[in-house]
Amino acid sequence: MIDGWLGALFPAVCTWCGTPGSDACPDCQAGLPWNDPACPGCARPQVHGERCGHCAAKPPPFDAAWTAFRLEVPVQQGIHRLKYQGRLIEAARLGRLLAPRLPSRPDLILPVPLHRWRLARRGYNQAGELAHHLGRLTGIAVDPRLAVRRRATPDQIGLTAVERRRNLRGAFHIRSALDGLHLALLDDVMTTGATLSELARACRQAGAARIEAWAVARTA
């Protein structure tokens, strides 16, 4: 009801070109940096849709990976506004872009958790905000409390892949059994996949049967 009132009071216009009707018009959506084709194992952009050589030689701890976009403008700007400027409306906008393109329908969407200290400083978890909107749009269950980040790991920006893995080792705890469940782990950006990999290991130990790593965008 509230959404309907807001829509009547403030008619939607495209974020990028100003065309009335929606916050992402069809023409602008078509021009977004969609991550297709990409490796189905790690979501790295490539010229074909088969598993890349790295995933074939050393499969990641999740069963599949998917990101809607490459981390390029204007999507990159939207993610930054959400993550660093508190523009929670970006989570709703990105959720509407992602929802029709999800690669599967898992039992549960599990957002990557923030440590309680970082959550207290920021006031929200950007992955949790994205998961909330995806759940609302698709009807897929979301549990933002099931996974806990039990160590306040340093920021991953600027670290090598090896340093990221070392930084995150044992960082996550799953609060209850996941026996036989199909999970989608959700983050805003996938860089090396270290965060999603470590969370996937914790979920596998808790009994998850199938684990997919999802993110809004992937670095090259």
TrEMBL record:
Residues 6-56 form the Double zinc ribbon domain. InterPro entries: ComF/GntX_DNA_util-trans, DZR_2, PRTase-like, PRTase_dom. It comes from the Bacteria. Pfam families: DZR_2. Belongs to the ComF/GntX family. This is ComF family protein. The lineage of its organism: Bacteria, Pseudomonadati, Pseudomonadota, Gammaproteobacteria, Nevskiales.
